[in-house]
Amino acid sequence: MNENYAVGIDLGSQNIKIILVKFSENTTLPKIISKASYPSSGISFGYITNKKELKKSLNYAINKFQKDNNVNIKEVFLPLDGYGLESESIPIIQTMATGLIQKFDLEKISEKSELILQKKNPNQIIDKNIINYIIDKYEYLDDPQGLNAKKLEANTFFLTCPPNNIQNIEDVTDQLNLIVEAFTAGPITSSQFSLQKIDKKIGCILIDYGAEKTSLLLIEKNKPRNFFVIKYGSKNLTEKISLFEKISFKEAEKIKISKIKTQKINKIIKDELTLLAKEINKILKKWNKDAILPGGAIISGGGSNINFIEEIFKKELKLPIKKPFNHILDHDTDYNIVYSNILIGQKDAIKIKFKTPEILEKSWGTIKKIFSLFKI
After folding, report:
1. CA 347 from chain center: how many Å?
2. pTM for the complete prediction?
């Protein structure tokens, strides 16, 4: 049996998550061998605020994981997910010179859309998706090459990230002798794996409730349509409990995640989650999607298991509420993004070398076979 291994790393504001998985020829999804979370510092709302502190915490996390799992991590694949990410939809109308849509026409549309985006948003493009094509007032979701048309309209979805944030991460990884093979959009890759096909087709929103921020990704007709980050996370809830009980942040965090709480603590949690749900509703109204997403809201992230969240979101958003479709993680949505990135990422995204002689350095032959199963 041919077995291949891969490691994923997710840099969060509160924790650094590392996961080791094993691919086998007779299985579609990789089995989780080990996963661990370590304290993070030097990151806030997805921005690198202190490279020295980030280097220290990342170095500790990698060394500890390598020691515990007997591996050497050589190259890494990092998802980008934070307050700096922005989405933009660019419409382009292209006149067909021959009356027939050709590859050249589609390339021109792609070039024009990027030029327009760069004038509006100087950030680095980390994801690009054609939302749809319009030909004679009819919508096409597939490649229109070869169709007859005088004019072709295309709408392109872009996700961007501040280039200095990427540079700061590269500076830290360079100092640790790690090679970043690729940066990917965490929310996009997460949606490709954790959402059910029917929900992506009929329309849904993926809500990632993290420590310092909550990201929203709208998907319809199997395409990302909008993305937004709210500067509010489960850490805000912990701070409220800490102030109310006059206890340390660490003690308040334990109370927040415990199953049994006092009525006053439960009221604080309900009030804070209601405020967050109302903020999400404001964004959905801007997108003209409030209460009209048949696929509902899918909640992931470290804060998604807090008491009352499904009940309150269902009431405030007036949508069906679900957790990510991922039996491998067994409802542990905190590792959803990092696990998804191993599956969806480029074939040479992460390379590790095992110290034990009986296990060879992984190849990516098996992974290539499964990429097509998870495309939007």
Report:
1. 18
2. 0.83
Nearest to 151 by CA among 195, 95, 194, 102: 95
Neighbours of 210 (CB within 10 A): 27
3-state secondary structure of 292: coil
Query: What length does the chain have?
Result: 376
For the domain bounded by 3-83+163-189+336-374, which CATH number is listed? 3.30.420.40
Tokens for 155, please give them: 């709408």
* Distance between CA atoms of residues 292 and 288, nearest Å: 8
The answer to whether 307 touches 269, Cβ cutoff 8 Å, is: yes
Q: Among candidates 13, 90, 98, which has minimal Cα distance to 47?
A: 13
- Tens of pLDDT along 134-160? 988 888 888 888 888 888 999 999 999
Question: Angle, nearest 10°, between helix axes 186-194 and 336-344?
Answer: 90
CATH of 86-161, one of 3.40.50.2000, 3.30.1490.110, 3.40.50.720, 3.40.50.2300: 3.30.1490.110
